[in-house]
Amino acid sequence: RNVGGKIQSMHVAGKAKAPLVPWSNGEIADPAEAIAMADQIGYPLMIKAADGGGGRGIRRVNASEEMASKLQQVMTEVPGPVFLMKLMGVLPRLIKWQKRNSQWRKK
Q1: What does 15-55 look like in DSSP terms, one character per residue?
Q2: What is the rounded CA–CA span in Å between residue 7 and residue 23?
Q3: pLDDT in tens, 35-58
Q4: Which residues neighbour 37 within 8 Å (Cβ) at sequence distance 6 or greater?
Q5: With 50 as the cut, is the pLDDT of residue 99 above it?
Q6: How confident is the model at residue 33 (pLDDT cuts 50, 70, 90)?
Q7: pLDDT at residue number 53
Q8: Which residue from 52, 66, 65, 58 is spatially nearest to 84, judged by alpha carbons?
Q9: Average of pLDDT values for 6-30?
Q10: Can you tell me the distance from the alpha carbon of 62 to that of 87, in angstroms, rounded to the nearest whole number?
Q11: 8-77-96 Cα angle (round to 5)
């Protein structure tokens, strides 16, 4: 039950001392709070909707000037809590890793 949502699962993983990507440590309510937290986390980062999925409710933010509009986009697209997470790496590496894993599973 504790890992049913994205924010809850991050809290559980943190309590278990699992290595975590820097994140907001909870829900973000407004642009001012998001910018303050983003300054601590560092850019680039992702705004993520806790109830999002399939590419919905997620936006990349490269600078504080983008925060208010991208936060509004996420909150409009997927109502509910949102959080911030440091963007680590690039997508092509993820795809490459997933492809390698798929090849290994076929053997």
Answers
A1: HTT-----B-SS-B-SHHHHHHHHHHH-SSEEEEEEEEETT
A2: 10
A3: 999 999 999 999 999 998 888 999
A4: 24, 28, 84
A5: no
A6: very high
A7: 86
A8: 58
A9: 93
A10: 10
A11: 70
Given a cut of 50, is residue 81 above it in pLDDT?
yes
Place of tokens 């850019």: 43
Between residues 96 and 15, the one the model is more confident about: 15
As a dihedral over the C-alpha atoms of residue 101, residue 102, residue 106, residue 107, rounded to 10 degrees, the angle is -20
Which residues lie closer than 8 Å to 25 by C-beta, 6 or more apart? 10, 14
**Alpha-carbon gap, residue 7 to 28, rounded angstroms:** 11
Tell me the two tokens of residue 75.
């909150």
d(CA 9, CA 106): 30
Residue with tokens 């809590």: 81
Tokens of 41: 């986390």
Query: How long, in residues, is the chain?
Result: 107
Q: pTM of this prediction?
A: 0.79
